[in-house]
Amino acid sequence: VISALEKVDKLLGMLMNGLKERHLHRCANVIIMSDHGMEEASCDRATFVTNYQQHTSDFIIIQGPAARIRPKRLPDDYFSFDYEGLVKNLSCRTPEQPMRPYLKENLPKRMHFANNQRIERGHLYMKSGWQAALNQQEVKYCTGGFHGSDNVFDNMQAIFIGYGPAFKTNTVVAPFENIEIYNLMCDLLEISPASNNGTHGSLNHLLKDPFYKPVHRAPLSLDTPCETSDPNPAPTSLLQCRCASQTVEMEKQMNTVLLAINDETKASLRRLHHPFGTPQIIQPDASFCLLYQSDYLIGYSRDIIMPLWVSYVIQPLVHVRAPSPEECVRADVRVPPSAGQLCSRFKNHPRLTFGLLHPPYLNVSAPETNSLVNSNMVPMFPAFKNVWTYFHNSLLLKYSQILNGINIISGPIFDTNFDGHADKFNKILGNEADVPTHFFLILTSCRNSTFSPVECKGPLQVSAYILPHRPDYSEVCTEGSDYSFVEKWMSFHTARVQDVELLTGLSFYHDRLSVEETLQLKTFLHT
């Protein structure tokens, strides 16, 4: 390694000396970068599929740190091969096994590694420093180094050095991804880039005088009121959301609280719960409205009859209220019955229940009943609901104390064809909403934790997650009620805010930040 570094250093010296001899060293922009990091190879950190599976005659393993499963009989078995059975058989075989098998559609969304028929459906995700092969004879690297592991691993991190008149001097910036560099190079040459996966303008903070000036994406759909014109609407029974412990009169009183919010209060609630701007819809012809509650806001979709997002700010929390029975969800009178979810769908359903995006026990200034409405409701698998609850009543408390308050935005994702983009809206029949494929969480706080999110004047920090909505925990090899795995599992499914935007048709952070700052925030991947 030292010898290789000395060789590279010598070559760079020759380049810089050549520029200086030609009097170009103060007018040429130079970029020094690597396309990836390296891991040290060792057969002691290799795992073999034959140790887990006896029958291996009908498939091969494309070996390495991102190993792939491929049927032998091609093209005949490429689509009919039992990938699900093999992945299940290779999962959770030994404690702390370095190999985790995945179907490509279940890999973290940040990888963008599913939307092509040439990508095999079966994958072996390896721990840092590990490789996989069918057997010991097929391991390619037992000495030296290799690359191709998950790019969030420290040893996979690349380098970037920019030097020249266009670059700022003595400046260290937060990590960014190599896909952003093409646009930067085009800006240095003052030419327009071809279409690419980078975000043009996200590296403007590296430059003294950026060539390209980005702007926010324009919304393609605007909200229209949901509220009924009737000042005293009667509770509806059409959605079968009645609760035995609540009389009609009690329900009317609860609804009066929701209907009494005036325009001045709405503006105040937007400043509180959308501190960095109301999310914008960048899908055409979306029908939605904003629903206001004192402790949270909903962007409610008439197309998918559930929230597009829920947003709220919490201060540092020491504890939360004990959860109340959620069977007492009532129909939101602000939403027409034709655009509301049927509550009775979840009664005695064998595989599905419902969850609440804003947990009632997080209400501070209003009763829990403000969150016990079907406009806050989403279909959830029971196992996922347990994880969702654990995050909100355990991890969120810890984060709120560390970060001095957080803005939380969460909502459903629909990506049934796993192309990394939001599905088109389906026509909903019978008031039964589609089941989301994922749920997203965006946690934003002030980088200077002496300030709360609402008071923050300086840079922000963000963590985003795209959580697969599945009916079991087979991915993490756990059973019972021990949810200590959740934090690590969420970290594995970390994402960029921009990944969330692609999968939801939403756009975030349109207020209080420059466009350049916004793009840095959206393209940041927490590692």
From TrEMBL:
Domain ENPP1-3/EXOG-like endonuclease/phosphodiesterase stretches: 293-515
Single GO biological process annotation from the record: regulation of bone mineralization
Keywords: Glycoprotein, Hydrolase
Gene3D superfamilies, per database record: Alkaline Phosphatase, subunit A, Extracellular Endonuclease, subunit A
Molecular function terms, GO-annotated: dinucleotide phosphatase activity; metal ion binding; nucleic acid binding; phosphodiesterase I activity
Residues in DNA/RNA non-specific endonuclease/pyrophosphatase/phosphodiesterase domain copies: 292-515
GO cellular component terms given for this protein: cell surface
Protein name: Ectonucleotide pyrophosphatase/phosphodiesterase 1
Organism: Nothobranchius pienaari
Gene from which this protein is expressed: ENPP1
